[in-house]
Amino acid sequence: MGYRIAVVGATGNVGREMLNILAERQFPVDEVAALASARSTGDMIEFGESGEQLKVKNLEHFDFAGWDMALFAAGFSGYARKNIIANPNCSTAQLVVALKPLHDAAKIRRVVVSTYQSVSGSGKGGMDELFEQSRNIFVGDPSQPSHFTKQIAFNVIPHIDVFLDDGSTKEEWKMVVETKKILDPSIKVTATCVRVPVFVGHSEAVNVELERELSADQARDILREAPGLMVVDKREDGGYVTPVECVGDYATFVSRLRDDPTVEHGLSMWVVSDNLRKGAALNAVQIAELLGRKHLKKAA
Ligand SMILES: NC(=O)c1ccc[n+]([C@@H]2O[C@H](COP(=O)([O-])OP(=O)(O)OC[C@H]3O[C@@H](n4cnc5c(N)ncnc54)[C@H](OP(=O)(O)O)[C@@H]3O)[C@@H](O)[C@H]2O)c1
Fold it and tell me: Using a 6 Å CB cutoff, which residues line ligand 1?
């Protein structure tokens, strides 16, 4: 017997990936409800290999009684009740997957991270704006930014989410507090988050200072064995991963791993992942799988 699962935000970038991943991983489902706002109530969404059609229902009128789990991907103004498990921010998720094995091996003191975040990280609206703006620029039509604060096509924007009093952005703040919360409160983190004209896939240039010595070669061996990671680091033309290559993948990719001689026990690396998958939908389904295996009666 499987689960009755509701996917909230099922018409969005992350919600659609959640449906894909539930089907791909053969998550034991008896019934799936696709929920969104009144805007898309009644729309049809495909689920699974058989092409089952799900009719989108309005979250506002949905009764969760009798449903085993709900995967939420509808923004932060959602439900603040108990039994809710939070997913980390997309840029944090891939970062901590790469940092954890290094922290276990040689204890991380400080992390400096600069992100190159794709437009899908800001929802359907972000992808539409990059597409429309690129087309308009090519054909010479005017194009004013509306979803982003400045032109995103053929440009980069050092601003994701709102500004805070100290001059950082909320996205940068999230990377700091979530990394500490997930790995270790003693780790110092500083982040600069940048939106780039890439449709899917976040990249991060990461500099790590460790407490104990760990060479790049040792780190590479450790990361090769770590769960959820793929090391592609050939030190030759094309011997590294870029965002377009990670789309649709479950893994977080590590490339360009090297010693950083400017600090004691320093390492630098390039970390890339599909933000809609490990950064959101896959992580949520993996949590649901764990929940099923460890805490719910029906075994997943
Ligand atoms: N994209 C990423 O890389 C990423 C990574 C990590 C976390 N997240 C988080 O995941 C969430 C969804 O992101 P997304 O990229 O999928 O956004 P999106 O493409 O803009 O989709 C938003 C979804 O939420 C639904 N929705 C919005 N307001 C709603 C409401 N009041 N009631 C019910 N449904 C509502 C929308 O339904 P309609 O079709 O009816 O408008 C749509 O299905 C956000 O919280 C985002 O921060 C995203």
Answer: 9-15, 36-37, 39-40, 59, 73-76, 90, 120-121, 123-125, 275-276, 279-280
